[in-house]
Design a protein that fits this description.
Helix content: over 70%
Structural class: mainly alpha
Number of strands: 0
Largest sheet: none
Number of helices: 3
Mean pLDDT: 89
């Protein structure tokens, strides 16, 4: 089981590096917002893997709250960018 956890964490790390590259290189603001949302999801997934490794379920409500806040933040930012583009 340790090999599975190591592989999952390695894949999450690679995905996080690619997401950070898109965050820094994104040609538009919406690309950066999407990359930031994916990055938060990757952090939540890594924390869930940590909870699985140590059999500690006390962080699950925190993970759900962070994911919900990330979703609301991404939707709000996307709507603000849409309105800003319309007023240009």
């Amino acid at each position: 089981m340790t090999v599975v956890y190591a592989l999952v964490l390695a894949m999450l790390t690679i995905a996080a590096m690619l997401t950070l590259w898109r965050l820094l290189q994104g040609p538009t603001t919406l690309d950066r917002i999407a990359a930031l949302d994916v990055f938060v999801v990757l952090i939540v997934a890594a924390a869930a893997v940590y909870a699985a490794i140590y059999s500690d379920g006390s962080n699950i409500p925190l993970l759900a709250a962070v994911a919900l806040i990330a979703l609301v933040g991404s939707v709000t930012a996307a709507r603000l960018v849409e309105r800003w583009e319309r007023h240009r």
